[in-house]
């Protein structure tokens, strides 16, 4: 059985009371696009970079040590490509329809973005700076800088600055926090505090798109309820044809109030999306019984 998708960006309800805890709010914030070479030069840190193989492609992949990232890095160090089945499905779709590019929200170390950049255009959004350093190094080593736009941001429903938290042994489990110190992960596990990151809206990505059609992969540890609101994401979906949205449906997401989850589901249902399992079978059960990887598929084209 394939392991579940890694979580990447965050948590936070972004409501009125949470706003008082934000470090800064700038209504004119724009995506923080980075040049891989500049990112590498900004750090003296050295990384372990391995050759990863997926389908018929081999490419550099830069990792953490297994003791601080036992999920993606730990498996990759053993030669196991995390979520290879879903990523391969995405790459096949990109190859089949050359109009499509990938928008990878919560890119982590580049599990989706690095292979996708070899067949299409990619926007990779990653809020964990330590992870972005490794992703930028892999992009540079793999000579795909022209195909991928790196954004050091989290995607939310506000433009603001938040501190972040991260699980101590899973660097992909990084999330926004509304305090000056991380107290627990969204599902109550230990965490430590990461430096701040700026949030942007999905709408803010429209000027950066190189195509009018895209696949979305979103892995934000329950923060999807803030990514997909009418004010934050409606313009993106009006301007960009999105046939599929890959999303993890985990415990952190289910912790939200029913009305908040319904708002997320209605965002897609109002645009004629239906929910499927990763094996392409339709999900008929109540959303509280969903788990693992799901796909929102647009039924009208």
What does this structure look like?
The protein is of the alpha/beta class. The protein has one domain: Rossmann fold, CATH 3.40.50.150. 25% of the residues lie in helices and 28% in strands. The chain has helices spanning 16-19, 36-41, 72-77, 84-96, 113-116, 129-141, 224-227, 230-239, 251-254, 258-269, and strands at 24-25, 33-34, 48-54, 57-63, 100-105, 122-125, 148-151, 154-155, 160-167, 170-177, 192-200, 213-218, 244-249, 273-277, 292-298. The strands form 3 sheets. An 8-stranded mixed sheet has the order 2-7-6-5-12-13-15-14. Strands 1, 8, 9, 10 and 11 form a 5-stranded mixed sheet that branches. Helix 5 links the parallel strand 5 (100-105) and strand 6 (122-125). The longest helix has 13 residues, at 84-96. The chain is globular. The model is unreliable at 1-27 (pLDDT under 50).
Number of strands: 15
The total tally of domains equals 1
Overall structural class, as computed from helix and strand content, comes to alpha/beta
Number of helices: 10
What would you report as the Rg, rounded to the nearest angstrom? 18 Å
**Could you state the order of secondary-structure elements as H and E?**
HEEHEEHHEHEHEEEEEEHHEHHEE
Shape: globular
Helix share of residues?
25-40%
Q: Distance between the terminal alpha carbons, to the nearest Å?
A: 32 Å
List the helices and strands and how they pair.
Elements (H helix, E strand, L loop, with lengths): L15 H4 L4 E2 L7 E2 L1 H6 L6 E7 L2 E7 L8 H6 L6 H13 L3 E6 L7 H4 L5 E4 L3 H13 L6 E4 L2 E2 L4 E8 L2 E8 L14 E9 L12 E6 L5 H4 L2 H10 L4 E6 L1 H4 L3 H12 L3 E5 L14 E7 L3
Parallel strand pairs: 5-6, 5-12, 6-7, 8-11, 12-13
Antiparallel strand pairs: 1-9, 2-7, 3-4, 9-10, 9-11, 13-15, 14-15
